[in-house]
Design goal:
Blueprint lengths: L1 E6 L9 E5 L4 H10 L4 E4 L3 H10 L4 E4 L9 E2 L2 H4 L8 E5 L3 H7 L5 E5 L4 H11 L3 E6 L7 H15 L6 H8 L2 H7 L10 H5 L7 E8 L2 E8 L3
Parallel strand pairs: 1-8, 2-7, 2-8, 3-6, 4-5, 4-6
Antiparallel strand pairs: 3-10, 7-9, 9-10
Helix pairs in contact: 5-6, 6-7
Length: about 230
């Protein structure tokens, strides 16, 4: 498999297959939302769109980056989200990097969203699908976020090498700027367990596939095979 690793600003064309990686924290939060029973996640273009969707669908759960804000039900923290019962609910998610990255490749024939918590399921999905080219969208820091690049490189390696050791990739993610900012309280809407939860390898057995539904980008869990 030929893999390329691009930041959002580098996406000058639409790739056939894209894996959007946001370890800290959008894709990890999405996985936790599904684990808590969410049926689907709508990826919003903006905070205003998220609030408009919430207004039209009061039973939907809207979440965003940063501190709590009027109109939103939750923040983009796996540690905080894991206490919510989302059984059968639709979640609307708007974040700084992860949702932006997914929407940037919305016209690709296949879009997966991933973090370490669904790494093996994502690699298994890509193996089952076959094909020779995958674009990994490194969403953080315009493509320079080492936690996202490490995760993307690990998944790419796992597609072709069963014996890949995750330890070095996880260490890189744990030493990243994002991890440091979470630990130091630079980012708001943080639970003390967020870093550990973001680095929990293969916590969940599903891949996450994004498709267009009624002009919205919708993320759903999928068994880890194509």
């Amino acid at each position: 498999m030929k893999a390329r690793f691009l930041g959002i600003p580098e996406l000058v064309d639409t790739p056939p297959v894209a894996v959007v990686v946001d370890v800290m924290r959008a894709c990890t939060v999405a996985a936790w939302a599904f684990a808590q029973g969410a049926e689907k996640i709508v990826l919003a273009e903006s905070l205003d769109e998220a609030l408009a969707l919430k207004a039209r669908h009061p039973d939907w759960v809207a979440l965003k980056d940063g501190a709590p804000a009027p109109g939103f039900d939750a923040v983009n923290s796996p540690g905080l989200l894991r206490s919510l019962d989302l059984g059968g609910r639709t979640v609307v998610q708007k974040t700084t990097a992860g949702t932006v990255g997914a929407l940037a490749v919305k016209d690709a024939s296949l879009v997966l969203c991933a973090g370490f918590v669904v790494a093996e399921a994502t690699a298994r999905f890509l193996r089952g699908r076959g094909g020779d080219s995958v674009t990994f969208v490194v969403t953080g820091e315009d493509g320079r976020a080492d936690e996202d690049l490490a995760c993307a490189q690990y998944i790419a390696r796992r597609v072709t090498e069963d014996a890949t050791d995750a330890d070095g990739f996880l260490r890189r993610a744990g030493a990243s700027r994002a991890a440091r900012e979470l630990a130091e309280g630079v980012r708001q809407g943080v639970h003390p367990d967020d870093i550990a939860l973001c680095l929990e390898l293969d916590r969940f057995p599903f891949a996450m596939v994004a498709t267009s539904e009624d002009s919205l980008m919708v993320l759903r869990p999928h068994p880890g095979h194509a």
